[in-house]
């Protein structure tokens, strides 16, 4: 016989925040993968290329920006290097430091990718005015900060 549970069994109910964050994250990741697929690029590779957009940077600096471990970034940098999208340049003052620099092909691809991302972000944010969009981004950053604190 199945025991019936009353509606007031739990003193507190979850707000649904985690559920909706997972939904948004999963849907966004699926969408991002679909529009990067024709370029044979994954979201992490885009993040690496984007981190190198204005100047050379190091693997360590990229690892601070992206939410994955240095070994995963290193593997993706190797792929981007093999594809001719990134160059490795020894540091000017310390040859042990390796700077990552976009090649012309990398810069051209990144330009195309950024145009696709901007178009998609515009469609994703349709119906939100500038103030609402800024608030949403601010809230997302705060939630990410809270999640980082929980993981330490």
**Rg from C-alpha positions?**
20 Å
Distance between the termini: 45 Å
Principal-axes geometry comes out as globular
Tell me, rounded to a whole number, the average pLDDT: 89
Secondary structure tally: strands:
3
In which order are the strands of the major sheet placed? 1-3-2
Helix/strand-derived category reads: mainly alpha
Name the poorly predicted regions: none
What keywords describe this structure?
152 residues; 61% helix; globular; mainly alpha
3D architecture notes:
61% of the residues lie in helices and 8% in strands. The chain is built from 6 helices and 3 strands. The chain has helices spanning 17-36, 43-51, 59-65, 70-82, 104-124, 130-151, and strands at 57-58, 86-90, 98-102. The protein has a 3-stranded antiparallel beta sheet with strand order 1-3-2. It is globular. The protein starts with 16 loop residues before the first helix and ends with a helix. 12% of the residues are buried.
